[in-house]
Amino acid sequence: MAPNATRRSERSHRAILDAALELVAELGYPKLTIEAIAARAGVGKQTIYRWWPSKAAVLLDAFVALGERAAREAGGEAPYAFPDTGDLEADLKFVLRATVDELRSPTYDVPYRALAAEGIVNPEIAAEFVSRVMEPSLQLYVERLRAAQRAGQVAADLDPRIALELVTGPVTARWLLRTLPLSHRYADAVVEMALRGLSPR
Fold first, then answer.
1. What is the pTM of this model?
2. I want to staple 140 with a disulfide (CB 3.0 to 4.6 A). Which of 56, 82, 97, 146 is the partner?
3. Model confidence over 159-174: pLDDT tens digits?
């Protein structure tokens, strides 16, 4: 019986994504090449170019798949769910601490930085990165903040999009700059200070 072409294709696809993540961690993004990914995955370059136009596109798909894999292992639909315990401060701290843990993990840190850097010079990758990686998680913040509005825990005229940036922005900036430690304590302090400004008056 001939091998199942679909299954073989899926194996090659997975091998390419895994190879991209492994190599960007080993070599760094500037030295990552389609040739190296193909060699590590055991496929021809044309196989990669049939599915992706560039190494950035491969890495983006690999990064998205990494999050989806983590979600499946956790038994959910997202790498982490946004809780709604009724305590907004506790819920924000829980999620921001999880974000800190993710940003400090080499598994996520290296490809995330590579894609962030590529997005500066590649508008298409930047737009895809925002829509596929950032926006789904940011929307969870929006929904939680709207629930807090309905409960009277934050100002009724609050713009959730701006509010979530008050919480997530400082953590992202500290991670990007690498000049100061990124910790749970810092995440908690950011939430506490942001909520002072979000509370109804």
1. 0.86
2. 82
3. 999 999 999 999 999 9
